[in-house]
């Protein structure tokens, strides 16, 4: 998206350009000043920045425009032209919600383009692939924490404090997993939580669906059963 903005500025575009951006707060808003500068060079630009959890130092109408998530409610209020070209980049849930919302809004499907936030080549094969090795307990001394059960793999292991996330534990056990960002953004690691509860560090940008968890940034709060 940033590259597109640079290209528009380099070509002295006179097009209407509307830049919509959602972040948790200013500390998680990369390239904010660069973007602002580029938009300032486009004579027909509009911008709407949404912060879902602004920090006290984030200034309304200066650093951001809307308190809340970037969603269809925001887009409908902007009354964007239905014959515009829409480029969406973000987590899969965010993109599918907006794509469906824009289609209901009257935007033709061939005018909606999406790009997943994350780096494709890092994606691992996922739970459908065959494990390279039979899942096993991790090397080293056993953990003393809650029991983590990987249901599909038929493996029960104790959580250990040396792991930063359930994803790290699964990898140490050769349980097949999929992931991309490893920071709670892309949802590629979203998996069914059959039983138990987890806590998040960091908090994901968008919560996992009911009954699911993001294994890349979660730890067990008591015994858990995971659909892996
Ligand atoms: S790997 Fe991206 S949210 Fe977990």
From TrEMBL:
What InterPro entries does its record include?
2Fe-2S_ferredoxin-like_sf, 2Fe-2S_ferredoxin-type, Benzoxazolinone_Detox_Enz, Beta-grasp_dom_sf, FNR_nucleotide-bd, OxRdtase_FAD/NAD-bd
Q: What class of enzyme is it?
A: oxidoreductase
- Name the domain of life: Bacteria
Q: Where is the Oxidoreductase FAD/NAD(P)-binding domain?
A: 1-97
Residue ranges spanning the membrane: these are: none
Q: What GO molecular functions are on record for this protein? A: iron-sulfur cluster binding; nitric oxide dioxygenase NAD(P)H activity
Sorted UniProt keywords: Oxidoreductase
Q: Which EC numbers characterise this protein's activity in its record?
A: 1.14.12.17
Pfam families per UniProt: Fer2 (PF00111), NAD_binding_1 (PF00175)
Residue ranges of domain 2Fe-2S ferredoxin-type in the record? 165-221
PANTHER family xref list: PROTEIN YIIM
Protein name as it appears in the record? Flavohemoprotein
Q: Which organism is it from?
A: Bradyrhizobium ivorense
């Amino acid at each position: 998206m940033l590259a597109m903005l640079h290209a528009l500025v380099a070509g002295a575009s006179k097009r209407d350009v509307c830049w919509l951006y959602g972040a948790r707060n200013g500390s998680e808003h990369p390239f904010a000043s660069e973007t602002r500068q580029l938009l300032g060079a486009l004579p027909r630009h509009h911008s709407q920045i949404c912060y879902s959890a602004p920090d006290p130092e984030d200034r309304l109408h200066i650093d951001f425009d809307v308190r809340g998530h970037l969603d269809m409610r925001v887009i409908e209020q902007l009354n964007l032209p239905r014959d515009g070209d829409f480029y969406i980049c973000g987590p899969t849930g965010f993109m599918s919600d907006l794509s469906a919302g824009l289609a209901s809004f009257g935007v033709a499907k061939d005018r909606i383009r999406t790009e997943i936030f994350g780096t494709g080549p890092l994606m691992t094969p996922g739970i459908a692939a065959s494990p390279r090795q039979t899942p096993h307990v991790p090397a080293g001394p056993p953990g003393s924490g809650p029991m983590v059960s990987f249901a599909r793999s038929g493996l029960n292991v104790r959580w250990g404090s040396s792991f930063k996330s359930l994803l790290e534990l699964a990898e140490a056990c050769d349980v097949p997993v999929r992931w991309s960002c490893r920071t709670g953004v892309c949802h590629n690691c979203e998996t069914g939580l059959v039983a138990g509860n987890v806590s998040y560090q960091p908090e994901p940008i968008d919560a996992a669906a009911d009954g699911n968890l993001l294994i890349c940034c979660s730890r067990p709060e008591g015994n858990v059963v995971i659909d892996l």
